Amino acid sequence: MKLELTRVVQGGYRLGVLKEIGRATHLSLEVPGCLLYTRCGTVPHLTHDTLHTLSNLPSITQLTLSTVVEHQEVLEEYKDGFKKFAGLHDTALYCSLHDPVTQSPAGYVTNKTVSVWGSGGRIELTVGRFMALQKALRPDLYQSMADGETWQGDASSRKRIRKSVDRTLAHLDECLLIHQQTAELQGAEVLGVVEGGDSLEERVRSAKETAKRPVGGFCLDGFQTGSMEGSLRTQLIGAVAGELPEDKPRLLQGVGRPDEVVACVEAGVDLFESFFPFQVTERGCALTFDLDLSPDPERAVLELGEEKDEAWESEQSGDVQLEDQAETITPFEMDLKDTKYRDDFTPLVEGCGCYCCTNHQRAYLHHLLVTNELLAGVLLMLHNMAQYNAFFRALRGALAGDQLEPFKKRVLRSKRVA
Amino acid sequence: MAAPVDSASDAVASQTNMPSLKTLSAVSPLTLRIIAECPVTKARACDLALPHSIVNTPVFMPVGTQGTLKGITADQLEDLGCKICLGNTYHLGMRPGPALIEKANGLHGFMNWKKNLLTDSGGFQMVSLVELSEVTEEGVKFKSPYDGNEILLTPEKSIEIQNSLGSDIMMQLDDVVSSTVTGPRVEEAMHRSIRWLDRCIASNQNPEKQNLFAIIQGGLSTDLRKTCLDEMTKRDVPGFAIGGLSGGEEKDDFWRMVTLSTDHLPRHKPRYLMGVGYAVDLVVCVALGCDMFDCVFPTRTARFGSALVPWGSLQVKHKQYAKDFQPIDPDCKCPTCKRHSRAYLHALFKNDTAAMHHVTIHNISYQLTLMLSVRQSIINGQFPDFVKTFMKKMFPSSDKYPSWAVDALASVNITLDQH
Ligand SMILES: [Zn+2]
């Protein structure tokens, strides 16, 4: 795996291309960028045909261990790896431990095990079982087993944080050892997990130690939305990034909000999970970015007026409790269940090229949502993924053209970047 | 041409309605071209030209109750070869309402469906879904389950809503009684359905682009069915449906009512058997001379993980398929079977709704493909052989053949093989 950076701002963002992803040597992914979020290898609500109405899909598909752990025996018997088992398209496969959308209960980590929750309940994983799963799944890259509870509840004492860093390093060493001895995983990359909670000292130690190991890249864990203030997060990520080698990618777990994404890109993050469009879909909302960055003074004046309504209103509603953030409608989306869309015969977003916007109108989506029809999830998922991918594309364009500040002002609107 | 209207025999039908019937026939937006007729049975293959495309019959019509087909996009449905699907007037009339759909250029525009649509009258749902419904000569009175208001669905109102929906085929409002009810209520409902048909015909605002089908009633009584057939076929409607069946009656009664109806329906008009969709029922009723079918079963059962296959059904969620790496049906050409195994679908059912969409697509494909094979065999003059092979695949041995199907097929000269 090669990370070719075309632009690096010291202590700041990186722009480039991740090439030869694991064994999928013909694939590449532009960074900053996002992965393709799936559950059990399927983008929520979508079949192969509907998914592929989208162009420029991220070339790395994310699979979370929690959605496949109970099928270990099946996959071992199948022998040809998860990509083929799931009928996936030509994509690189990344396997993470937890599902970023579902919060797992804390308090089940031991020195030798972590737990994941499948549909049938808790399953305890040792490094041995974790690696047996990877062997059956045959991903192109995967995160090493990690103790990532420190951001939850009472688990955040200094002593507990130190322990999580130690355990995670020990798991990594054990994973790497088995990895090297496993023929099925040759050519795959291991991402080392950086822990350390909200402790600068432990974050730096975790980063330094992980960077010494033969990993293909890094997972930054414990920065999930809701875990800490945005300013602390970017400060810690900045410190961690300073300890990591420049030529390896950094994937941030659990952060998907566009304003938080931009802030973390500025702190040196390359890759994000794309669970955010799914969360927006599940609350019956549609992402509405204004991504046209071409300078048009007339339009700009118009928009100053427009900015007032939706975006400002949600800003005024005051401080949102951190833990509620995942359920809260962000300023980047419209709530299609609102009766004002009942007879609105315009597309979700004018000019959006997704299947939903080229074929359907807001009134139809409103109808599907109020009647609880399954097609609502399909159409919203397509639109929200299209918008989210376009957001990353526009962000890269802005970085390439030195337009980050205008981009933030326009796309993030009134939202103060944390 | 149907026989001229004999108004003397139909005292109830208002005289003023009659002239409009005459003018209708010239502009009926439907033509039926018979491509082939089975020399042995009553089966036929036709091209039914409707405003939004030609429909090859025999045809199965999937049901998209609320202006959407259960998680399947309009493009996916079209790619499966579907040329006509259903919308439910009762549901759509409630939400989002006819005025809004009219503004969206009808149901076609609202759901962006480019092929044909058939809408029911709304009466059936009212009687089956709403407890507090009362039928009078005026119409069906019921309480809205959404706001509790009392609503009266008259034949005129039903057609008004269906005119707003803009469907290619509209159904008359009929007086529905359960097929297990007997006695004078059945006769009353039959006569009332004839009167309501005339009111529906008179109130159709778009006879040049929307076809109105009559619905033959009469319960399980040969005499009542016959009377209804005699009366309704006097009206020059573009097509006929056989109604009041598939509601829990004995299958022996069911097929006899079907075959009686097709014996008396005009050859040059389409025959729609309502609410029938099990594979065996489809094949037998094609043999009895029906052209069109609809049923929620294939799509509803898909959401519970039940996939339709030539040997019956396959419960994807059952444990026995967890390690089964074959497609649902190795011979099936649908997008699901081309890409996914039983084992993967089994795993996916625990994680995401897309699992249901995969089986829904497979089941619609199964129904459409079955009808396509039926049609081809009729055109090739091999329909009786097709029926025999189909039954052999569907049942493990000939002693498992349902007796009603054996009798029904025998009535049209097909004797099933013993095996
Ligand atoms: Zn869109």
Q: Which descriptors apply to this entry?
A:
heterodimer, A: 418 residues, alpha/beta, nine-stranded parallel β-sheet, B: 419 residues, three-stranded antiparallel β-sheet, globular, binds zinc ion
Task: Write up this protein.
The complex is a heterodimer of chains A (418) and B (419). Chain A contains 14 helices and 16 strands. Chain A has helices at 48-51, 72-78, 82-85, 127-137, 158-181, 200-212, 230-243, 258-266, 276-282, 297-316, 355-359, 362-370, 374-400, 404-411, and strands spanning 2-8, 14-21, 24-31, 33-34, 36-37, 60-64, 92-96, 113-118, 121-126, 141-143, 189-194, 217-220, 250-252, 271-272, 285-287, 333-335. Chain A starts with a strand and ends in a 7-residue tail after the last helix. With 419 residues, chain B is an alpha/beta fold. Chain B contains 17 helices and 16 strands. Chain B has an eight-stranded parallel sheet. In chain B, strands 1-2-3 form a three-stranded antiparallel sheet. Chain B has a three-stranded antiparallel sheet with strand order 7-8-9. In chain B, helix 7 crosses helix 8 (184-203). Chain B is globular. Residues 1-26 of chain B have low confidence and may be disordered. Chain A binds chain B through residues 39-50, 53, 67-68, 70-71, 73-74, 77-78, 85-87, 118-120, 342-343, 345, 355, 359-361, 363-364, 366-368, 370-371, 373-375, 377-379, and chain B through 66-76, 79, 91, 95-96, 100, 103-104, 110-112, 322-323, 325, 335-336, 339-341, 343-344, 347-348, 350-358, 361. Residues 348-349, 352, 354, 356-357, 383, 386 of chain A line the site of zinc ion.
| Major pleated sheet of chain B | 8 strands, parallel
Give the averaged pLDDT of chain A, no decimals: 89
Structure class of chain B: alpha/beta
* Range of helix content of chain B: 40-55%
N-to-C series of helices and strands of chain A: EEEEEHEHHEEEHEHEHEHEHEHEHEHHHH
Cα gyration radius of chain A (Å): 21 Å
Share of helix among residues of chain A?
25-40%
Strands of chain A, total number: 16
Mean pLDDT of chain B: 91
- The poorly predicted ranges of chain A are 295-324, 414-418
Strand order of the largest sheet of chain B: 4-14-13-12-11-10-6-5
Please report the two chains with the greatest interface, counting residues with C-beta closer than 8 angstroms to the partner's C-beta: A-B, 47 and 43 residues
